Every structure is written in structure tokens, then in C-alpha cells.
Amino acid sequence: MPRYAMVIQRDLCTGCQTCVVACKMENLTMPGCSRTIVKEGPNGEWDIAGCMQCAKPPCVTGCPAGATWQDQSGITLVDEEKCRGSECGACVEACPYGARKLNPKQGYFAVPVPYEEVARKLKVKHKVHTPGKVDKCDFCAHRLKANKLPLCVEACTTLARVFGDMDDPKSDVSRLLAKGAKPKNADWGTEPRVFYI
Amino acid sequence: MRPPLQRLAFAFGSPNFGTESSNCFRSVNLAGLLTFGTLVMGGPPSKETKNCFIWGVNPAYSAPFSMKGLLKSKQAWVNFVHIDPRATPTVKALGGMHLTIRPGTDGALALGMIQTIISEKLYDKDFVTKWVHGFEQLKGYVSQFTPERVSTIAGIPAEQIRAAARSFADGPTALMISSAPIVHHTNGLQNMRAVFSLVALTGNFDRPGGVVAPPRPLLPPDFMGEPEFCFRKILLTDLKPKRADLKQYPVWADLIPEVQMNRLPEYVEAGTIRAMVLFGGNAKIWPQPHLYQKALANMDFSMAVDYFYRPWTHNYVDVLLPAATCFERLGSPACFGRSVYQRQPIEPLGQAREDWQIIADLGTALGLSKEFCNGNLEAFINELLKAAGTTVEELRNAPGSMIAKPPKEPPRFQKFAEGLLRKDGKPGFETPTGKIELYSPILEKNGLDPLPVYAEPVESPVSKPDLAKKYPLVLMTGARVPFYTHSKFRDIPWLSEFQPEPVVNLNAEDAAARGIAEDDYVFIENDYGRIKVKAHVTKTVSRSVVDMFHGWADQDVNALVPRHFDPISGFPPFKAGLCQVRKET
Predict the structure, then answer these.
(1) What local confidence, expressed as pLDDT, does residue B219 receive?
(2) Parallel, antiparallel, or unpaired for β B473-477 and B545-548?
């Protein structure tokens, strides 16, 4: 089983927001629930936020319903059926990276639009979201199963996002880790699998 | 739908077909025609390129798909030189020299670089002797533009100007420009010509790795304005004397097949234009939009066709028709390279009708049933498709039909030497002297300065020091953001999450001096108006420059843009006005 990781090369990011839109297209997340956020700082530097896919995820230990769990490749996932959502919100509090959001009551439009209806009708799980439940990045687990990259990685206009198996010494992520890619706030001790260089 | 609308205007007897291009890219077009006799838009570096000048463009936002290629060029050791008042993401990603120019002084910088290139004898003597007209005159003129003097004009250190000049001459040098940054100024056309003169003097025109001329003969068909279908001939002959822009912008009227729309209020005031049909028109694209709204209202008759009801335009017209969207219409073939598509996924919904149909019916109602195929949509579209040697029926059966491909051949350079840039097939350029015209006989004949002279923006801290005491900041508008295209897509809620309200980018020191912090509401104001927007405090914008994105209907920065127009192109200074910014109290 691979151990998935992502490395973001900060110097290459131009803040074009393609990854944010690509994620939205792929996962049809609800308003205010972008799974990756790219924000400009005062010096023109880009801060790329989102789920860090921690090896020691406080959201898993913090979930009282057993709804948040980690698969064998290290991706943290949410079982919507078990999730108590806005009645609970413990995982949102537990995540030090602020990467979890509660789905709002209403979607982008007052009535479902055709692409939402189609997703619902065809039961495309990753595109259907329940109001009130928690939402987070899953490295596009459905795409990984089909041997595809997470869409934010595939869509990146400057190849700033790199994805792969950190157990494979030949992978691009391993190469960048050897070059010194570091997680954000390593001192928090959650062992993120998203690194920056 | 530009071709059928031109056909309608010209067949009806009006030469006054205009588009937003007359305050977008057409001035670059005009500068290219005056200097090289052909359209020159620059382009990205190729494998032969040594230096690439990115002049006022931020492809990371305006063409993000090109960034992978540019980053590859960086890896291949292309040396980038950026000329931009902002440290854009492109500057950051590609690195290289960055000249933080004061907006509107591009011409002075180019002339300073030319002065260096000539005084250090770095120009391409053979090329200049053979292909360039006006070298001696330009040499005389630029002697006053020493890097030291240009430094005081453009706000760039003299040594950096010299270094940039030496890089430009050490070719092959590619030049990336765009529609707006150099020409959206009161001296924009000549500034553009000064930059083009650099290309000519260094022999970088149409050489591998340099500034490549468009292929000729131009790839047929031109679906934007196929001359035969558009009845261009009538415009150029019978209708020419009736052009609304003829007196004020004679050079434009000679070379550009569409009327200069920026002076619409004046045309209406003078009674030259009394009625108007707008397809997707927007009164807010012009400086001081209220005057254009008034012009629409004051006409005898005006009609608009649009997808949306936009009160700032449509409250001023007599009739508004709902337009069919791209999913509901047959008209306007889609061209991808040489593949042509023509399809109509669904019938128009509600009362919507497609542009081509509306035009065909208007033409027929005007008694021009032959020219407009008696309102028969398919027959009307077939008239245009003739140029591609196909028909709607054929494309229906074979979507993506290819226009006949010319035999494959390697890209050609120095096409001017082979006579490929002139209609008569002789070597040289399609200009009066047959050479690249640094000194333009066309401008001279029209009483305009034949050399690419520099003039300060009409309103700048240098030209209007008193005004600048009140409004010390330079107002630069129109720089792109990645998620909106002009005023488009504001109705897509996914996208408006990025920037739900208008934001101004302020230099950190300018903000601090005014007690402005991140996300504060501020007023941007000058004698023309005032808007209230949110502040983004950043070090990426040069000191004294204010960078405001356009297209916000309620807080419209175009209301603050002066109506001083470039005397040759008629373009307004979208990129260099004066303003003050203060915190909302």
C-alpha cells in the first residue's frame, strides 16, 4: 500500500486559483467549503491551505462518533452516515489547520441545478454533499482508485503541486522531500503528509 | 457575430460599425500597421530565444495555460526582463530583471534603450540599412533620452535601463506584449511604436527566437471579419466619407475597419449618429460611463440584444431583445485551428433568438432580402462558410471538418525578404516606403508627429504637478485577476467566492501613510468621481501606484478615468490617471 503525500513548491505557485476551481468542479463542494484555499500574503507570497492528511490526525481521535477514519494509504476520510455534523463539530475544532468545514444549509442556488441533479441521480458519491455534515479533502480518493492524480495536481498550471508515494524512493515527492520539503507547523506533531518547499 | 453585423451596417449604408476593440487591442494593431505594415502582437520565447521581454503582461493570470511553456524556457536559460509597475506572479515565477516602470512612460523607456543601443553601436546595421526607414531622424530625436534623463521620467535606475538595452540588443530577443498595457495611455500609440522601433533596430523582426510576423498569406478564412462576406469594399469606398471618426482620427479611419467608438457621446451630440443597435454592448466599458448612457438615451432610437438584463446599459435603450446563448444557436462557426464546427445543441428557450437570425431579419426588413437570404438562417450562414469551402449541412454531417491544410512546411522567417508581407509580392513591408517605418510618412501626412515621440500622460504627477498635490497616486486599472474576465462571470457564485466585492491593491507604504490596513474600506477619488472599495495592502504594487480591477457595476473605476484621448488612436488612459485614496471614516 502506498503512503500518499503531496509536495507544494511555493515558488512556482502564481495564485492562478486553477486548483481551487478544479477541486470545486471535481467535488462540487458546497458554498464556503473549498477544500484548498490559495491566498496572497503582503509580499506577494502564496499561502496554500487545506487538509494536511496528517499521519496522526487529531480529527480522527477528536471525532466522538467514529465517523472520521484513516484508510491504509493514510488518507483521512469522513463517513457521512455516522457524522453528526453541525450538532457536533468536534473535528472542526480539533483540526489545528482549519481544514474542515460544515456544509451550509443551502447550495449555490436556491434550487438544485442540472449538474447537481445529475450527480444525485447517478449517485456520484464524491459530488453529493449533505447540508450540516462535515466536508474535507480526500486527495480525490475516487480518482486515485482509477489511477488518476488528484485534480488539483493535474490541473496546476505551473506544476507546483506534486503528488505520489513517499515510500517509493523514486517518486517525485520523495525527491522533493530529500531536497528539504517540510510540513507546515511540524511542531504541532500531527505529522502532515502535505509538504512545502 | 461580427461578420453579419458588419454586413448589415455596410449594406444598410452606415460605415459606423464599432466594437470594444476600439478601446482594447486595436491600437496595438494600428501601431503595427504604421510601423511594420502588418499586425504584430509579439509572442512567447522559442528555443532560439536568448532574452525575452515581458512588457506589462502577467500571463500567469491573463494566459495561465502558457505558464508551463514559459517555465520551461526559464529552465532552458532564457533570460527574462519584466517591465511592470507590479511584481506580478509572472515576475516572481520567471525571475530575471524587473524594471518597475511608472505607468504611461513606456515610450520614454524604449527611447532611452534606443539611445543606449545607438550610442553603444549595438543595433543591427545591416538590417537597419536594408529594411528600416527613418534611422537618422530617430537617432537625432533620441539623443535627448539619455538613461539618466529617462531614469527621472520612468522611475528606473539608469544602469538598469542600460542593462535592459544591452539585453534587448543581444538577441534573439522575444517580446511579449498584450492588448492593453502599452497603448491604454494618452500617448499610447507612439509609446507602442517606440517599443516596436526597438525590435526593428535590433533586427529582431521575424527572425527565429525574435518577434515573429504572422504567416502570410493569412490563414483563411477570417471568421471575425471575412472581407467579402462583410462587404468591406463598401466601407472602404462609398461609405468612407461618412465615417464618424474620419475627421478626428484620420489615420485610424484609414487603417482600421471599424469606427473609433470612444467618442460616441460626441458623435451623438453632433448628430452624426442618431440610432444604434448593440449586441452584447455595455455602457460601462468606457471612461465616465454616464456620458455613454446619456448618449444612448439621447439617440432617436437604440436597441440592444443581450443574454442578461443589465440596467446600467439597458435602462437607456428603447428595445431589448433576449439573445440565444451558445447552446441554443446555430450561428457563428466555432473554429479550433483548422477544424470548423457548426451545431445547435437545443432550440432557443423562451423568446430568445440568435444574433444571426435577428440580423438576417433586420436586413430583410430593411429591403435587403437578397443580401440577407430572405431571413433564412442556414442560407445566411452558408454565405460566410463559402470562404471555408463548406456549408452548414456538410458540417452537420461531419462536425470538426477541416479547412484544407496547406502542405506542411517548416516555419518561415524573414518573410519580408521573400515578398510574403506585401500584397504585390515584392520584398519589403506593406508601408509607403516599403520599409519598417520608424519615421512614418502616414503620420506626417496627417499632421501628426512622424517619429515615435514621447509625451507625458495628460494627467500625471509630472504633467499636472498641481493636480497631483491633491491626487498624488497614479490610478492603474484593468490589470487582470484570474477568476473574472472583465465584467463577465460575476454571476457565477463559485467564482465570486474569490472576490465577492471590489478590492484595490495598495502599496504597503502608501497604505501605512494613510492609516489603511488590510480589508479596510477606502475611497478612491479624483475630480471625476469616487468609489468605495476594500483595501488589499501589498508590497507587489509600486509606490504611488493604485491597482484597481474594473467591471464592478456599483463601484465602477471607469467613472474615475479621464476622457483625454490619444490624438492618433483615440484611446483613453485606463492605465494612468491621478487619484487619492483615503480610509472610510
Answers:
(1) 47
(2) parallel
Q: Which of B314, B250, B305, B251 is nearest to B283 (CA)?
A: B314
Query: In the predicted model, what is the mean pLDDT of residues B461-473?
Result: 98
Distance from CA of A16 to the nearest CA of B (A): 6
What's CA B435's distance to the chain center, in Å? 25
Q: Do A108 and B494 touch (CB under 8 A)?
A: yes
Q: B322: which strand partners?
A: B306
pLDDT, tens digit, 9 for 90 and up, residues A10-61: 999 999 999 999 999 999 999 999 999 999 988 899 999 999 999 999 999 9
Chain B residues close to A11, C-beta within 8 Å: 92-93
Q: Provide the CATH topology of domain B465-583.
A: Barwin-like endoglucanases (2.40.40)
Joined together, the cell numbers standing for residue A111 give 434550487
pLDDT of residue B72: 96
Which of A8, A11, A16, A35 should we substitute to test contact with B (largest number of B Cβ atoms within 10 Å)? A16
Q: What pLDDT was estimated at residue B540?
A: 96
User: Which of B65, B482, B497 has the CB atom closest to A34's CB atom?
Assistant: B497
pTM score: 0.95
Higher pLDDT, B20 or B342: B20
CATH 3.40.228.10 fits B37-215+423-445, yes or no: yes
| Residue of chain A whose alpha carbon sits nearest to that of B91 | A14
What Rg, from alpha-carbon coordinates, does chain B have?
Answer: 24
**Spatial separation of the C-alpha atoms in residues B295 and B289, rounded to whole Å:** 10
Name residues whose C-beta falls within 8 Å of residue B291's C-beta, 6 or more positions apart in sequence: B265, B563
Output the pLDDT for position B222.
64
Architecture field, domain A4-196: 2-Layer Sandwich (3.30)
